[in-house]
Amino acid sequence: MHFLKATLIGGVAFLIPVVVLMVVFGKAFDLMSRLAAPVQRFVPLESIGGIAVADLVTVLAMVLVCLLAGLFAMSRVARRFYHRLDALLMLLPGYASRSL
Length: 100
Hints:
By secondary structure, this protein is mainly α. 74% of the residues lie in helices and 4% in strands. It has one domain (2-89). It has a two-stranded antiparallel sheet.
């Protein structure tokens, strides 16, 4: 019974972040699709290899946004923000954990 309970809890703990990521990327795809729709008017093709040009533009835009977010995350400004936020959160009881 312990194995079944631990496996079920582990499965749920694994799937929750996956589902959250799928929802976030689905919403981002919808938003980028609406933003990329005007670009499709300038492209003479409807699809490339069975994939809609608007979908390709959307995916490329999402990859570009992820790349820019990654570049920002490695910047000095982002590191400074992270350290200030972490110092602020250290003031909250229970945020910092002590090693044994």
